[in-house]
C-alpha cells in the first residue's frame, strides 16, 4: 500500500514550527527592541495566522487520507480528507496574497523614487485583484460547495478541473513574477541610500532574500497537473500539497529573517563574537527614533524609512559671545552641522551618528 502522508505531515510540522519562530522573533525585534511595529508587521502576523489555519487543515487531511490512494480509503475518510483539502486551498490562496502584501509594504519602507513606489503598489494591487478572483473561483468551484467532498472535485456540478488547473498555472506564474520583481527591485531601492557600498550590498541582499519563495513556486508548477486526476485526487496532488506548504513557509521565514539583524548583532556582541556594540536605538528600544520624528517632522514615507534611511535631522546649538554675525552650514549626507560665529572664528561642530537596522551609517 503506497502511502506518502508522512511526507506531507513532516513538511507541515516543519514549517509550522519555523514560521512561528520567525514571526515571533520579528515581533520581538520590531515591537520590543526597535518600537517600530508597522503595517508590514501586522500583515505578516495575519499571514502567519492564515498559514497556520492552512497547516491545521492539511494535518487534518493527512489523518484521513491526503497522500494515499482512493482505493485504500473508506468513504467517510475520503470525504473528510477532501473537505480538509478544500479549506486548505482557501487558506493557501489567502496566506499567499497577504504574504505578498506584507513584502510589498516592507519594500515601501525603502522606496524613495516615484517609479519604485508605483511598481510596488501595482504589484500589490494586482495581487489583491487576481488573488480575490482566484479565491472566489476555488471557493465556488462546485455547486453546492459540498459536492467537492461528497461527490468528487471533478463531478458534473463542479468546474472542469482543466479550467481550474489553468487558473492555478496562471496564479503560479503571476506569483513567481511578483516574487522575482521583489527580488530584483532591492538593487534599485538601495542605490540612493546614504550608505557605504558594503551596507548597500547587505541591505539589497536581505531584501531580495525575502522573495526566495519564488523558487518553490517554480518547483510547484509541474505538479499542478495533479488537479486533473479527480478519481485519485488525494494521491495525485501529494506533491502539490507539499510544495504548497513549502512556498509560503519559505516566504514567511525569509521575509522575517530580513528584519532580525538587530537581534543577531546584539547576540553576537553579548557572546563576544562581535566587537561592535549594539546601537543606542536598539538598547533603548528605539525610543530615540520616535522622539526624533515627533520633534523634527518627516517627509513622504519617512515613518517607514526610519529603519534604513537616515533622516535629515541635526542638533541646533546656541552660542553667545561678543560677535555680531553668525553663519551656519549643514551637511545632511555626513550628519555634520557647523556653526561659525563672528569674525574671530568661534566654531562649533556637532557630528550626528545615525543608527539603522543595517548598522551605523
UniProtKB/TrEMBL annotation:
Record's keyword terms, sorted: Membrane, Transmembrane, Transmembrane helix
Subcellular location: Membrane
TM regions (residue ranges): 6-29, 41-64, 84-110, 122-149, 169-189, 201-221
Annotated GO CC locations: membrane
Disordered, as annotated region: 315-340
Pfam families tied to this protein: Fung_rhodopsin (PF20684)
Keyword Cell wall biogenesis/degradation: no
Main location: membrane
Compositional bias segments (type: Low complexity): 315-324
Segments forming domain Rhodopsin: 25-265
Topology of this chain in the membrane: Multi-pass membrane protein
Keyword presence, Magnesium: no
PANTHER family named among the record's database cross-references: INTEGRAL MEMBRANE PROTEIN, PTH11-LIKE INTEGRAL MEMBRANE PROTEIN (AFU_ORTHOLOGUE AFUA_5G11245)
Family of this protein: Belongs to the SAT4 family.
Protein name, entry field: Rhodopsin domain-containing protein
Upper classification of the organism: Eukaryota, Fungi, Dikarya, Ascomycota, Pezizomycotina
Amino acid at each position: 500500500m503506497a502511502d506518502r502522508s508522512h511526507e506531507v505531515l513532516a513538511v507541515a510540522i516543519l514549517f509550522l514550527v519555523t514560521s512561528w519562530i520567525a514571526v515571533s522573533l520579528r515581533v520581538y525585534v520590531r515591537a520590543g527592541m526597535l518600537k517600530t511595529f508597522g503595517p508590514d508587521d501586522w500583515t505578516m502576523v495575519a499571514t502567519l495566522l492564515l498559514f497556520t489555519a492552512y497547516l491545521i487543515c492539511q494535518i487534518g487531511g493527512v489523518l484521513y487520507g491526503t497522500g494515499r490512494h482512493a482505493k485504500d480509503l473508506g468513504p467517510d475518510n475520503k470525504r473528510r480528507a477532501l473537505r480538509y483539502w478544500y479549506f486548505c486551498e482557501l487558506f493557501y490562496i489567502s496566506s499567499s496574497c497577504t504574504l505578498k502584501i506584507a513584502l510589498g509594504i516592507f519594500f515601501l519602507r525603502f522606496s524613495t523614487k516615484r517609479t519604485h513606489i508605483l511598481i510596488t503598489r501595482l504589484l500589490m494591487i494586482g495581487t489583491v485583484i487576481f488573488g480575490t478572483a482566484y479565491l472566489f473561483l476555488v471557493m465556488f468551484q462546485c455547486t453546492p460547495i459540498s459536492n467537492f467532498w461528497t461527490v468528487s472535485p471533478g463531478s458534473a456540478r463542479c468546474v472542469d478541473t482543466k479550467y481550474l488547473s489553468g487558473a492555478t498555472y496562471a496564479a503560479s506564474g503571476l506569483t513567481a513574477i511578483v516574487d522575482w520583481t521583489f527580488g530584483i527591485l532591492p538593487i534599485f531601492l538601495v542605490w540612493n541610500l546614504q550608505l557605504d557600498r558594503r551596507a548597500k550590498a547587505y541591505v539589497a541582499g536581505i531584501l531580495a532574500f525575502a522573495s526566495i519563495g519564488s523558487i518553490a513556486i517554480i518547483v510547484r508548477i509541474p505538479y499542478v497537473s495533479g488537479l486533473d486526476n479527480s478519481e485519485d485526487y488525494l494521491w495525485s496532488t501529494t506533491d502539490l500539497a507539499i510544495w504548497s506548504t513549502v512556498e509560503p513557509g519559505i516566504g514567511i521565514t525569509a521575509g522575517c529573517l530580513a528584519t532580525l539583524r538587530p537581534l543577531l548583532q546584539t547576540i553576537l556582541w553579548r557572546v563576544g563574537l562581535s566587537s561592535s556594540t549594539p546601537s543606542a536605538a536598539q538598547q533603548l528600544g528605539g525610543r530615540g527614533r520616535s522622539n526624533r520624528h515627533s520633534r523634527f517632522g518627516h517627509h513622504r514615507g519617512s515613518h517607514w524609512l526610519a529603519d534604513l534611511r537616515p533622516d535629515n535631522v541635526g542638533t541646533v546649538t546656541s552660542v553667545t559671545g561678543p560677535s555680531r554675525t553668525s553663519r551656519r552650514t549643514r551637511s545632511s549626507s555626513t550628519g555634520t552641522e557647523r556653526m561659525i560665529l563672528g569674525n574671530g572664528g568661534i566654531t562649533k561642530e556637532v557630528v550626528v551618528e545615525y543608527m539603522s537596522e543595517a548598522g551605523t551609517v
